[in-house]
Amino acid sequence: MSVRAGRRTAIVHVVRRYSRQVHLTEHLDRIDLADQGKGPVRPVPVPRGRISDRLDDERCGEIVSAYLGGTTVAALARQFEISDYSVRRILIGAGVKRPARGLSDRCIAQAKSLRAAGMSFAEVGQQLGIAESTVHLMMAGSTPSTKRETS
Fold first, then answer.
1. CA 57/CA 65 separation, integer angstroms
2. 3-state SS of 90-139?
3. Same domain, 43 and 4
4. What residues make up the domain containing 91?
5. Among 49, 48, 147, 65, CA closest to 107
6. Which tens digits make up the pLDDT trace of 36-82?
7. Strand, coil or helix: 19
8. What span, in angstroms and rounded, lies between the C-alpha atoms of 46 and 44?
9. Are 107 and 128 in contact (CB under 8 A)?
10. How much is the pTM?
11. Are residues 56 and 94 in the same domain?
12. Are residues 113 and 93 in the same domain?
């Protein structure tokens, strides 16, 4: 990688992370010094503090849209370089409801029917797309049901 390409990459990195920070010029000056051979470009620390200082409304909107499109909280946290908690706070702030948890009554009935037909816990789980341990709990009556339908 050429020095010029390295500098561009570093500038893009700094601007992406610090576009809403008052210290942006300080970091750009550090890159310029390194480009002139007067010092190394050190990794820029991940900013801490309020999420509103790190992400503008547009980026928060991207997080909400991606989540509603099926991207997981963990994947969004990695992509936007924030914590899972911060992603959840953004989603809550945007009024996004968490999906219902638990299994539908229909799913529980199917599992019981498949077990009665002689299938193992693992086979039932695979057939219904749930974990074997969930099937065990379901048969023991420990898994709550909800009104939502699962396939």
1. 12
2. HHHHCCCCCCCCCEEHHHHHHHHHHHHCCCCHHHHHHHHCCCHHHHHHHH
3. yes
4. 49-98
5. 147
6. 777 666 655 555 667 766 788 888 999 999 998 888 888 898 888 88
7. coil
8. 7
9. yes
10. 0.42
11. yes
12. no
